[in-house]
Amino acid sequence: MFMTKVIALTSTIDDIYDVYSTIEELELFTNAIEKWDASAMIHLPGYMKVCYKVLLDVYEETEEVLRKEGRAYHIYYAKQAMMDIVGAYFVEAKWCNHGYVPKMGEYMRVALVTSGYTMLTATSFVGMGKIVSREAFDWANNSKLVNASCIIARIMDDLVSHELEQKREHVASALECYMKQHGVPEQVVRDEFEKMLDLAWKDLNEGSLNTINNASIPMDLRIRAVNLARMIYVIYKHEDAFTHSSQKLKECIDLFHGYIGIKVMGLDLRVSSA
Known about the structure:
mainly alpha; single chain; 12 helices; Farnesyl Diphosphate Synthase
């Protein structure tokens, strides 16, 4: 449930930075997130206060549960991951406000954070109990596997949403950054990004199977980053199904309606619940 709430909140916060706020309001909100204290709410506009309070409440109620289990430190890492993504959102908002198009290296350093997948990987660990260690959270923030997942999320997102987002005021996408830096047409960039995605999938597969380099990180944790990449592949394979969720994404969800999952001898099976 915590993961679901964080995804919903992140989507709302993303829209606050992308669509609804002035740069001055965003600076206030970013500062409030960095403080992570209810007292910071007094400086926020009304609509931001609502989001900020819900954010604090969601993390606080989960922290109370984890404290009883002796794992309150899980929330520390989850909060830090949220602070990181909000800080990166603000960088992108300033780029957009100034009409700045960064070079690819500068763009990707920020855009991999705003892909959300480092944050979501850490968030997915919060309720997983004893198999999660401090080392696991550090791994989520600094591993080849999670980085590959972030690359897949960012590039696939930018490939399908580029045209729509540039019809309104929006931060430059990876395509724009690459085209401006290298002076090449869009199709050349798309071809290069497909190669980048191929390499990222190889890194993802290697990271998920290579027990030598990831021996201390259980497969149950590594598979979280893999599954996030699988999810984004479905959402952005042909179109922006996240933005247009009432169509393609709803069809995907409907495929699971009326079914329950069971595991037999290590194999996942589905049987009708009707």
